[in-house]
Each structure stands twice: as structure tokens, then as C-alpha cells.
Amino acid sequence: MTWNRIARRIRVPLGFIFTAFYLWLARPTPAFLAFSLILVVPGLLLRACASGYVKKNAELTVTGPYAFTRNPLYLGSMLIAFGFALAARSLWIALALAILFAAIYIPVIRSEEAYLRNAFPGFDAYAAIVPPLLPRLTPAAAPGAERGSFSSQLYRKHREYNALVGAGCVYAALILKLALLR
User: Fold this and answer.
1) Which of 19, 22, 32, 172 has the fewest CB atoms nearer than 10 Å to its CB?
2) Are 128 and 142 in contact (CB under 8 A)?
3) Contact 53/73 with Cβ under 8 angstroms?
4) What is the pLDDT of residues 29-59, one digit of tens each?
5) Are 68 and 153 in contact (CB under 8 A)?
């Protein structure tokens, strides 16, 4: 089994394990909890928006957030994760996140892009004008792209509301930890 396949399979369970490690090391303060919202809220919004555009395995999505970055869901996840690292006030957590994201998401992105390249003839043209992770400042007009729009039905289908629920649970745990540390 290749690392790409292993990374795809372990990324979600590893997230739960990391959350336990995170909550153990976190040393939140009210100010850092508030500052973390600067990253967490945009990350949640980006994931929510992207999930309402993407039609997984059915078509190449090149509009909405996908006109700025090829991987808005992963970018949103990174914003959320590093927002929580800020809330935790732990350099170790931030360092562990950076290593985990590199070890897990680089191979996953490569694997997914290999699939997209084979499944959708327009992927190479799209990839030539839209960066893999850090977004463009202006939306790209992918060749032959139709104007897409957000679909709340897709948002619900992809169960993206779970990211909001998860973030709420982490904030609740941090607030509880903060209260117990006082």
C-alpha cells in the first residue's frame, strides 16, 4: 500500500487523535480564543462555500472558491487548524500541525489531482491558471467554465455543517479547560 492511500485513509482518524493531544497541550486565554476566530471563521466559511459548489467525481468544479484555489476545502481546514493552534498558545501544536498537513495533505492533493487529470480533460488548463493551495487575488476564468452558484443542497449532501459542529465542540472544550485552569 502506498503512502498516498495510507494518508487518505488515516487523515480523519488522525484528526480525532490529534484533537485529544491538542486539548491536553492547549493553554487558552480569552484573548487568544478571540484572536483564533480571525482564522477559524474564514476557514469555516471557505469550507462551507466550497462544499456548496463541488460536485465530487461528477464534474470539474472551477467556479466559486475553486476559481481562486484548486483546494479550498483543504485551505479552509488549514485556516481552522492554525486558528485553533493560535487559541491553544502552543508552538508545539503549530509545529505538529505543519508536519501533519505536509505529510498527509501533500500526498492526498497529488493523488486527487492525478485522478482529476485522468477524469477531466480540462484539468490541466485549469491547473495552469489556478494555484493548488494559496489563492489567487482575482478569480480565474477557466476555459469553457460555466458560471456556477452555491447550492445549499450540495452543502447538506456533503455534511459540511459537521465542521461547524466540530469547531463549536473544540471551542466548548477550550472554554471548559480555561474555566478549570483558573
Assistant:
1) 172
2) no
3) no
4) 999 999 999 999 999 999 999 999 998 888 8
5) no
% of the chain exceeding 90 in pLDDT: 70
- Which phi-psi region, left, alpha or beta, contains residue 124 (left: φ > 0; alpha: ψ -120 to 50)? alpha
pTM above 0.70, yes or no: yes
Cell representation of residue 106: 501533500
- Give the residue among 181, 167, 172 at the shortest CA–CA distance from 45: 167
> At residue 174, what is the residue type?
L
Alpha-carbon distance values, 12 to 54, 84, 100, 104, 166 (Å):
20, 17, 12, 10, 12
Closest to 14 (Cα-Cα) out of 83, 80, 104, 123:
104
Second-level CATH architecture of 3-181: Up-down Bundle (1.20)
C-alpha span between 93 and 107 (Å, rounded): 21
155 near 96, Cβ under 8 Å?
no
Find cell 491553544 and name the residue: 88
